Amino acid sequence: MMRILFLILLLANVVAFFLFRGTTQAPQAQYVPQPLPAAKPLRLLSELSPDQLKALAQSSAAAQTQINTPAPAPVTPAVGTATATTTATPVAPVMCASYGPFPGEDAVRTGRERLQKDGAQVTQRLLPGKVRLGYWVYLPPFQNRKQAEAAEKLLKKRGIQDLYIVADEAKRNAISLGVYSQRSGAVERRKQMRKLGYHPVLADRFRDTPNYWLDAQGTADQLPAVKVFEDLAEGDVAIKRSEIACPGRGGN
Question: How many CB atoms lie within 10 A of CB 97?
């Protein structure tokens, strides 16, 4: 009886074991081997043709060069360096001009200040020259002093005043009939003397005097037209402007 009971319990345990295993383990997926991709069969170097060996050597050298060549380093712009392209401002050409003659020290000083005010570089030079004193009307020299005195006395009797006998060596014994600042006055005096039968001479009178010149260097805007200095001229001697070669440029 005890043996039968033992067999029943043993059988019950076996049945329970298989029932429990079937509920806890999931069926494993069956492994299916995949076919290998198609590949070229291996060949020995001795089996390759000369052209194949040359192509293989070139491909190997190219691959080695690509491996050994370092990648270029990125360029980092310096701090404060402008990356945009800027257009250079054109520079005005430098030229030179000469102004003169200025009649005196005061005039040339004023002219130099006007040029320097505009930014020009100015140098001053002094040249000998003459200044017109006026227009001189006179009777040509007589042969001697006695003849000159007789002519002078006759002219005064005929109402001609403001005359004298010249004592200078160049025009000795000539009779001066007046010096005029305007040419029109001298021409009128000459007409008057011709009506009386005389043949007077009309000549310019000058005196020796230094002439002042200003040489200026700068751009066209810094070298004004000569009209800027018109008020500094004296008499009928106008101030002129002329182009000159800049120092050290040989006129180019």
Answer: 22
Determine, yes or no, domain membership for 249. no
Question: Do 202 and 105 fall into the same domain?
Answer: no
Burial class (CB in 10 A: 0-12, 13-18, 19+), 166: middle
Give the domain extent around 202. Answer: 132-207
Residues present in the chain in total? 252
Beta strands in 109-163 (DSSP E): 121-139
> Does residue 100 sit in the same domain as residue 164?
no
Reported as a single tens digit per residue, the pLDDT across 51-63 is: 766 676 676 666 5
What would the DSSP string read from start to end of 210-223? EEEEEEEEE-GGGS
Residues 168 and 230 in one domain: no
Residue at token pair 């080695």: 64
Query: What pairing do the DSSP bridges indicate for beta strands 121-139 and 175-180?
Result: antiparallel
* 41, part of any domain: no
pTM above 0.85, yes or no: no
Tell me the CATH number at 189. Answer: 3.30.70
Do β-strands 175-180 and 164-165 pair in parallel, antiparallel, or remain unpaired? antiparallel
Asked if the model's pLDDT at residue 40 lies above 70, the reply is no
- Residue 99 CA, distance from chain mean position: 23
